[in-house]
Amino acid sequence: MISIQNLSVEFSAKSLFDGINYVINPRDRIALVGKNGAGKSTMLKIIAGLQQPTSGHVAVPADTTIGYLPQQMQLSDSVSLREETRKAFSHIDRMQERLDRYNAELAERTDYESAGYQELIEKMTTLSERLLMEQSEGREAEMERTLLGLGFTRDDFDRPTSEFSGGWRMRVELAKLLLSHPDVLLLDEPTNHLDIESIQWLENFLQTKAGAVVLVSHDRAFIDNVTNRTIEISLGKIYDYSVNYSKFVELRKERIEQQMRAYTNQQKQIQETEDFIERFRYKATKSVQVQSRIKQLAKIERIEVDEVDNSRLNLRFPPAPRSGDYPLILDNVGKAYGDHQVFDHATFTIKRGEKVAFVGKNGEGKSTLVKCIMGQIPFTGNLKVGHNVKIGYFAQNQAQLMDGEITVFDTIDHVATGDIRTKIRDILGAFMFGGEASDKKVKVLSGGEKTRLAMIRLLLEPVNLLILDEPTNHLDMPSKDVLKQAIKDFDGTVIVVSHDREFLDGLVEKVYEFGGGQVKECLGGIYEFLEKKRMASLSELERRPPATESKAAAAAPEAKKAAAQEAAPRQERKLSYAEQRERDKAQRRARKKVEETEAEVARMEAEVKAIEQELAEGATDPEIYTRHEAAVKRLENAMSLWELASIELEEFDA
After folding, report:
1. Tens of pLDDT along 462-476?
2. DSSP string across 597-631
3. Which of 168, 266, 275, 486 is spaced 20 to 30 A from 380 at the CA atom?
4. For 219, phi and psi rounded to 5 degrees?
5. Average pLDDT over residues 132-158
6. How confident is the model at residue 574 (pLDDT cuts 50, 70, 90)?
7. Contact at 8 Å (CB) between 454 and 462?
8. Given its phi and psi angles, is residue 479 left (phi above 0), alpha (psi -120 to 50 degrees) or beta?
């Protein structure tokens, strides 16, 4: 599909890529891996056409579409979430405009037998078929499913995008990208702003609905579940493996061992040759042999080995001072912002030495509860921090809170006290800030380097309760492994807010789920928690009556409507007059939408039935099968829209 041919890139006389060649095939799921600075993001930009290589080129077929999600982007804030997401379908409007131009040109031409006329007919036929397929897939229903899958609620659809945080607006861009159905998806750290449920939804989408995918990610579980091919960028070259990331790690280890043996043998050969040249350089009787060895030495292609960096992050938390048996006790704790109740009645106890995770969708209150524990915001209920508890807190935006105009050394020197000040250079060296790196200004550091620097500040005094809010953002996989081991070895109590399943696996023994205004406790690790969630979801699915027969499908709208009317309303707080009026208006709109979609379902069923009647009567026109397929797809779309509308109405009726 896409061919990368002899690609070379140089920055300031330094070679980033050197004559790289590979092909992206239609169903490839490629993980692009390598050290920070190896050129992964640059490679994506070159494939997307946003950056030009020094030499070589990327061959992309004329009809192949490419979608690119960068780590950072400029976002529009002028319209609602629904309107912004609809921009994903602008390519369909452009296709319709092209088809209209072809039709106009066809009406004016009279050279019916010419090759140009036949070529125009073929273009129109191909474009018509593609347009029919795009239009029959139910844009509105697909848009709503995608937004819901990425964590938005129906209440968000008509909110202006300016009300959403940067992370949520990145989800909007991701939704638009997925809905545009490009042939090749290029994703640079797509999980950075997603929670666990949204990551799992994205995994499923990429596995089942995407074409070719090339992604850069530090989420090991995500790339393992999605990819079937791994391309490593190392020392300007690539190593291509037809396996997922975990298997690649094993194969890479074998490759490095082979390279090391070859490198050792070559170094031995070079040393022997250089010794011979040095020993006999000035002997006339050996001049021919010396010149031969010099030429031989010049021709040797030196073997390079991308060794594992032994100076990597060396992290160990100081011994924890002994605290009381219960570092944290919550009794009916709640937090609201105006009329919005983030969570309420949170009641649980964390024992000394426990390591627990706070998980849930973004916006459900994980970081909010952490701020309550830290005393940064007011709350309701009782929250008691135990005897002799000393908290070490890593905030989600900790890296951004540092002064970018001072150096790495000064950042630590400003907060260090006592004997620690004499050991700052040693501490920085252990965190890969040795030598000149300690004199860099904070503003030029990468996201991962800023996170490491913020972690150093956390280690300057002993604590016994670590609260880490998204500590793995921007950390590469080796650094995450070191941090995970350090937390495992820490003998105090730990609360981790994270959406990284691989990081939490084997680290925490208890999970607190935030959602629906509640905080629920789940004993066991993260994968046990996810399995229970999956089983609960399947149980609900199994309780729903099957609707496989066409008669049942036809009767479904009326049956669901009757069931909704019979359902007893739940108790709720008393609404004000204005709120009740708004609720009634929204409910009427929802009911009207159900009626409209029911009518559309009935109309589409009649259309399908009419075409099937033609077939039963022996119709022979080949176009009838195309019409039947399109009508069935439109019926499926109408059923999807009706189902979404019915769910919305049920929420009001419940």
Report:
1. 889 999 988 887 777
2. HHHHHHHHHHHHHHHHHHHHTT---THHHHHHHHH
3. 168
4. -90, 100
5. 79
6. very low
7. no
8. alpha
